[in-house]
Amino acid sequence: MNYFKALGQFMMAGARAHANWEIEVSNRILGDRKRMIILGLLLVPIILGGIAFADAPGALPGMLGGKSAYAPAFYTPLIFFASIGVGLVAGLITGCIGAGGGFIIAPALMSAGVKGILAVGTDLFHIFAKAIMGSVIHRKLGNVSVALAVVFLVGSLAGATAGGYINRTIYEFNPIMSDAFITTIYVLMLGFLCSYALMDFFKSKKAAAARVASGEAARANVLTGLAQSLQNVKVPPMIKFDQGVVPGGRQISFIFLVLSGFVVGFAAAIMGVGGGFLTFPIFVYVLGVSSATTVGTDIFQIIFTAGYAGLGQYAAYGFIFYTLAMGMLLGSLIGIQIGSLITKVVSGVTICGLYAVATSAGFINRLFALPSKLASMDMIPMSTATGKLLETVGTYIFFGVLAAFAIWVFYIFFTNIRTLKGEGGGHHA
Which end of the chain has fewer CB atoms at under 10 Å, N or C? Predict the structure, then answer.
């Protein structure tokens, strides 16, 4: 149980760090008129190009677009508005709960009929577009260890290459197996996260939220036993960092940095989540890097890891649905702003509960979809009708929970507008 708890704290810390990055990037994009103009210029050709070929799916070769296997350019108004909705809910989760909402994007797209490999590539492209538009690296240069970042990127780019190759190879061999593989990964990850989140929710009802938060902050700046052991391994070249945090700084063998980067890049390419949710806990709890240096380096690696994985491993092979990606970007920018405001009038216990519900919905969705995919490959005995029924039930539960969450957030937002403007008293939901 102690290992389960430690791993849960590990994952939650990463989710929160990634959410903070998304919120900061969103604020920077919306606060800059030039960036908003760039966003508009990116949207126009994608939407107009989609309209031009919407009625003629055979006009483009499969590798570039069309309505068949790859389909990144096919467009209908419903598809675009649905992508805005997905991005909006993901943004609401990120801003309100303070944990990255990207984990619902791939399941949502797959439930809507998008192939798993397209969902992963599209999510990566969406993250890269957001990162490059809202880049805040120059504000964090003081917290970025260049040596640390460069060696880490060697591993992350290698991992992204391996992950992208595996996803593409499985898809080319059997598209159904590809969906089953990606679904299985999400079942395992979301199953763990929702289990820990539910335990954390019930625990938080008994313990002070402030005490939990302060405990996490303290752990983020104290070397764990594992980090001390790794830093004691003197295999050259040794990479120095945190010179401004501790006298003389700290150092660690490049081997552990490359391996850590490989894990992050591999996860990013397989799941389409950018890898940011893993970088923070790995740096702080495994490698022993200070939280300040970790934040700056995390921002740095997301741009390159998501960019390389999205463009080099998916876009180049036609596995990105650009219309969906830009719609999700637009929706998430709005959702994050509203979600962030809600935290001022919602109790901490409620936020813990919402995170548990959101992750549980994603877990149920992928869990119910898995049997039909396994049955399609004759791995388990199940009729097509039964598999389809389970998948449909999981889809309805998933979108039902997300819709209820969005309605609840908007209700709290509109009923507390005076409070949020500082004009009156409010209430806690």
Answer: N
